[in-house]
Amino acid sequence: ALGVGLSTAMFTVADALLLRQLPVRDQDHIVIVAGAKRDGSMANYPLDLSAAREFGTRTRALSAVAGVGYEGAWPKPIRDGDQITRLRRAMVSGDFFGVLGVTPVLGRTLRASDDVTGAAPMAVISYSLWRQRFGGARDVIGQRLVTYDDGVSYTIAGVLPQGFDFPRGAEFWAPIAASLPASTLQYVSVNLVGRLAPGARLIDVQQEMNAFFSRPDASQWEHALVGAAQPFSQLILGNVRPAVVTFALASGLLLLITVINIANLLFVRGLARVREIAVRAALGAGRVAIIAGLVVENFLIAVAGGLLGVLLAMGAVRAFVALSPPELPRLDEIHLNGAAILAAIAITGVATLLVALAPAVLTSRTELASVLRSDARQSPGRIYRQLTEGIVIVQVALAVIVLSAAGLVTRSLIKLERADLSFDPSRLLIAELSVRLDKFADARQQAALLERLTQAVSTVPGVRAASPVVAPPFAATGGWDITLTAEGQTSADTKTAPLLNMEVVTPSYFETVGLPLIAGRAFTDADRKEAPGVIVVSQSTARHYWPGKSAIGQRLYAGSGMTRELTVVGVVADTRYRDLRVARPSVYLPLAQSFFPFAPLNLVVRTNVPPATVVASLRRAIADVDGGVALASATPFPAFLDRSLAQPRLNSLLLSVFAGAAMVLATVGLFGVIATMVRQRTHELSIRIALGATPRDLIRLVTLRGMTLTVGGLLLGTVAALFVNRSLRGLLYEVTPTDPVTLIVVAGLLLAAAALASFIPAYASTRIDASLALRSER
Hints:
Layout: H1 2-19, E1 30-37, E2 47-48, H2 49-58, E3 62-69, E4 74-80, E5 83-92, H3 96-100, E6 106-107, E7 122-125, H4 127-133, E8 144-146, E9 153-159, E10 172-175, H5 176-179, E11 189-196, H6 202-213, H7 220-223, E12 225-231, H8 232-237, H9 241-271, H10 274-282, H11 287-323, H12 338-356, H13 358-364, H14 368-373, H15 382-417, E13 428-435, H16 443-458, E14 463-469, E15 480-482, E16 485-486, H17 491-495, E17 500-505, H18 509-513, E18 517-520, E19 534-538, H19 539-545, E20 555-558, E21 564-572, E22 586-590, E23 602-607, H20 615-625, E24 629-636, H21 637-680, H22 682-690, H23 695-724, H24 740-765, H25 770-775
Parallel strand pairs: 5-10, 7-9, 17-22, 19-21
Antiparallel strand pairs: 1-11, 1-12, 2-11, 3-11, 4-5, 6-9, 7-10, 8-9, 13-23, 13-24, 14-23, 15-17, 16-20, 18-21, 19-22, 20-21
Helix pairs in contact: 1-9, 1-11, 1-12, 9-12, 9-15, 9-21, 10-13, 11-12, 15-21, 15-23, 15-24, 16-20, 21-23, 21-24, 23-24
């Protein structure tokens, strides 16, 4: 049941995420194309719209090219009667679905004619949104989605098929040009989606991109890029793929351990029945009748285990879906796989039936008279004993592999949960705003609004401080990035400059998030637009530009012409606000001096009371500032942290379940072999007792055999784990695949389980009545 249930459940997940084709045409011919920094500091550098269109006209390796917004699926406020809801919108070019070859279940997809400035805004929606928001009604075509912030009214043109999830989490797709003012299109960044031309390969696309970035008329930033291309299916899974592959391998190992365990237990059970089978044969039972009886017995075992396994698989799949993070791709397609159930039952059933025949085969090759004269408890021979003991060693070795993988992932989770964020997350609230862009069209108006909002929110009872922030913590859509040039740098140095996380904040920001200054000062009200430009940098930013020197007073320049001079006035630690695994190098600009065409539309709020208790007051205070702004959501910081930890926690939980099952099976297998050994060596043990052996001597003798087998399995499994665990690197955090602590703990657990499994039959050996056992041999 354990083997069939758990392995089938995981195969079902792997099939939905890895094996099943996405609802696009010729998935293997689709690639995602972008740039990458030559120094390796960024693997996915987007193109602006003009560069993307130019490359589309130049390429020969791609037969068709479309664009998808670099920001992915971005939350968009939607008017829903008197309420404001949020749906994730993906911005795409009009030929996006044509390139992918997506067939809608209702209506039509977007067309090139929809992606024109001034065109009537059209949208297509996801299958899940259609089912959840519109109840699966077929009259959804023609209905409208009206955005709160910019007032765009999208007409729903179609419903996409179930399982289409690109960009991940998108709930509706809209054409770029028809959704944005023409003046803002120059700020749009996209990745390219292309279909390989006949005979073209991924490397051909990368080489074309390299040549494109190296062309004489390319901009300075393009010269710092190289081509990056990856298969469409690989991008869909993203960082989930290593986990799913690991789970699939773990389930395969568990099924293998199950089959081995069944084989071993039935084999030793069958050997103990050799005399019984010989008696049946002596009384006239034919070989066919004997084999039929064994087949029926073990068929019942296989059926019972298979049925119980089906129930376990159903529960395991439901638990996986319930515990999985919402961003897991194609989650709504994960259902119990009937073919996988049948395959697992067939594997274990065939193994059960084949091994069940061993006693009959053994008997058919033995003289009946010899078997009948021998003791039923006598050992059947060295070869059979070595075979069963060898199987136990293999079981233990496989258990070591699964246990060590679970241990490494669990240790990584513990370290990740204890990672130093560099700021104080307690009583921190992230407020996401919805702003009407018809009232606040440019960054200057938005910045003025944010200053008023910050002041109003700061006066709410229970609020200690507030400041704007570019994006919510650990947002899948990231935030704003910037590349800066230091005073005195050469053009070659500029090309290797890191991509920096940028925050646009008010003077109260560092107090609000609890991020202490390491050197210099924070911003003040004197850092206004007309004052000299200032900037606060993180430690790694300072180390990159001025190694071994103080950053205070140094100058950085922004803009392609280095037109904006920024003087460093403060240094803070690198934070894990955007990425829990990596402390990002960051820079901070004062809101009053921001030169970006957009203002941050989120607030970070520090409270003196539990954050949830001030949400209603915040909503009223924000509404009182202006009717053109509303509080879209307010979430305590720990909720964002839990989202970021959801996948690592799921990884740890699932591997721990597999590891626990593997250890149980290995322990049961060892117990069966040792218990059988005790039964088969009753005569020998009785003689030892008659010659003066104490119960302690017998326990030591039997337990030593079990521990010897376990140590053999540990050595074999440890060597294998050192190689196998290298595939876990993508799941680990500050833990190496050869972590000695994990391997020692795994060895300790298995030795403890083996000691218990060996002690029980060892203790039973001390209860042997030697005189009775020896008399029965006469």
